[in-house]
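Hi R.,

Here's the chain you asked about this morning:
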Amino acid sequence: MGKKRYTAGIQRVKGLLQVASALYDSSLSFETTRAAEGVLQTGSRLGRALRLSLAAGKDSKNISLSFATGGLREITALADGKFSLIWMNPSAMLTMAYRGTGPFRKRLPLRTIGVFPSYDIVAFAVHESTGIASLAQIKKDRIPLRLSTGPITSRLLRENATMITVTAVMRAAGFTLADIRKWKGRVQPLPGPSYPERREAIESGAVNAIFDEGIKSWGQTAVDCGFRFLPVEGKILKRMVTLGYRPAVMSKARFPGIFEDVQTLDFSGWPMAVRADMLEEVAYALCEAIERSKDAIPTDNFKPLDLAQLCANDEEAPCDVPLHPGAVRFYRERGFLK
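And here is the predicted structure, written out as tokens:
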């Protein structure tokens, strides 16, 4: 057997994919200490929204695939056939799309290839000085919070997973962002939970409430600065579970300084999703590709990627949308599903 090689076209495609990936380790990237996880965080001047198409051309035997990262808009585009696969977060958004709840008006024909591990919760923190003991009390006493939260443009309030979740909880508790302003409070919107402005506002006392996800980047700082976490419970929790959210616990074991576990909402999981009508052989091949590249795929939990966890439906990788049959066959053959 002589030397093996890819066809000329495949050589160029694979080469460009490698170059695109390596750009995130080039001089266009930079390191910050925004995250509060005890590690440096890499950012980049490059965009982080992926749109990738592998076109089959005129050969009807070949397969065209297209990929995207994103959120609510990409979920809808996937269901409409504009993409073959999307990688998004959190799992709860995909669950709502599958069930036709929350921002989705109808059930979408989606399945998962796997859910990559990423632990997170949505938390509702208030400073001890406010005397607030429940979300319902905010409405009852019309408390003028100085609130730090996610982005609040009109589009992102409709499309951003964080703000869809935060505002849904607030509505279930009987108040809105507009109410906070009407009560003479103010809102600090941030593009992401780990932005340095969040830490500065917590430490300086500029804010006395934080409603957000990304708990690893600000939760411990809030605890250390005298914030407590309000439970999501009762009719509020029931409403959110009906939509498709899982209950979760903010554990005192994870956050030193919390004296008891706090009931809240899960925001974990990075699911890869496809349409339900994807060919089984293609879904199976996607799992094979993940297996072949698992050592190069970054993980959110700082551990080597464990394929068994992609179908484990555990705390870091919750899955309430069925696996595609091709993925089921793959995981069963590898011994991960019984």
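One quick note: The chain has a mean pLDDT of 95.

Cheers,
M.
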